[in-house]
């Protein structure tokens, strides 16, 4: 039997496995109905049936390849037209196959299309729809490499830096509208992304790899606590607050009508 709650419907991208599938399970436990989005329709259908049985919620499947513009627009239409949608988990993405200089440029273009272009379009669509509805939540899945990009493939790090900066800027624009935002910055997480990229999560230092269930539970706890940026592995929130304070302190000096004297011609 399907139960009804006042939470509405959560649309989760990249929902067939890993972080997205775990979000779907946790949100269903909370009482959200679901729209599951991914390329693998068979896996989505199997997950949908399991969630219906386990949690008694309504679950729709929307097959979409978010590196394809037409499929992105189909998901946009669902967000705009379905007034029951109150939460977007913007999770779909792919990782690198290796070091940047050894990677395939066409693959990197696909990564940008999925990690940046699709994520941007869906978040802006949701923001516009949620402002009109006077409520809603957008969760953007970034990565810890957004703040330490030199540790990883440059294109991938750049896409995740975009997600973080986009979320921070959009949050300011949405202040007072009733729409909430969160950027989640996972570190290494036990998902299929490593296998898809031709590697193995087992080859990593296991003391640095978080279980996906722990990651999502921490991210949802951060959302409940009202965090704009959640770094599930970070022990002391004050470290992030100091980082942000230092960044904000640059603000008064990043635009003047004359160059700094240290750049004056000899």
TrEMBL record:
The keyword Oxidoreductase applies. Transmembrane segments: none annotated. Gene3D superfamilies: NAD(P)-binding Rossmann-like Domain (3.40.50.720). Pfam families: adh_short. Keywords: Oxidoreductase. It comes from the Bacteria. InterPro entries: NAD(P)-bd_dom_sf, Sc_DH/Rdtase_CS, SDR_fam. Belongs to the short-chain dehydrogenases/reductases (SDR) family. PANTHER family: ALCOHOL DEHYDROGENASE. This is SDR family oxidoreductase. It comes from Shinella lacus. The lineage of its organism: Bacteria, Pseudomonadati, Pseudomonadota, Alphaproteobacteria, Hyphomicrobiales.
């Amino acid at each position: 039997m399907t139960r009804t709650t006042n939470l509405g419907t959560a649309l989760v991208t990249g929902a067939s496995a890993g972080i997205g599938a775990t979000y779907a399970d946790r949100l269903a436990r909370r009482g959200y109905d679901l729209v599951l989005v991914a390329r693998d329709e068979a896996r989505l259908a199997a997950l949908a049936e399991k969630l219906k049985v386990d949690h008694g919620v309504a679950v729709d499947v929307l097959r979409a390849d978010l590196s394809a513009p037409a499929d992105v627009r189909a998901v946009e239409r669902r967000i705009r037209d379905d007034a029951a949608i109150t939460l977007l988990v913007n999770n779909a993405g792919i990782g690198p196959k290796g070091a940047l200089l050894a990677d395939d440029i066409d693959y990197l273009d696909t990564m940008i299309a999925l990690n940046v272009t699709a994520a941007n379009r869906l978040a802006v669509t949701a923001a516009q729809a949620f402002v009109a509805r006077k409520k809603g939540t957008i969760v953007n899945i970034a990565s810890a490499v957004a703040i330490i990009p030199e540790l990883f493939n440059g294109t991938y790090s750049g896409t995740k830096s975009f997600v973080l900066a986009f979320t921070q800027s959009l949050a300011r624009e949405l202040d007072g509208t009733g729409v909430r935002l969160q950027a989640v910055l996972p570190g290494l997480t036990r998902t299929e992304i490593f296998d898809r990229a031709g590697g193995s999560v087992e080859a990593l230092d296991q003391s640095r790899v978080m279980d996906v269930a722990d990651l999502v539970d921490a991210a949802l706890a951060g959302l409940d606590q009202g965090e704009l940026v959640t770094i599930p592995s970070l022990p002391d929130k004050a470290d992030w607050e100091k980082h942000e304070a230092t960044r904000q302190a640059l603000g008064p000096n990043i635009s003047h009508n004359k160059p700094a004297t240290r750049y004056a011609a000899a």
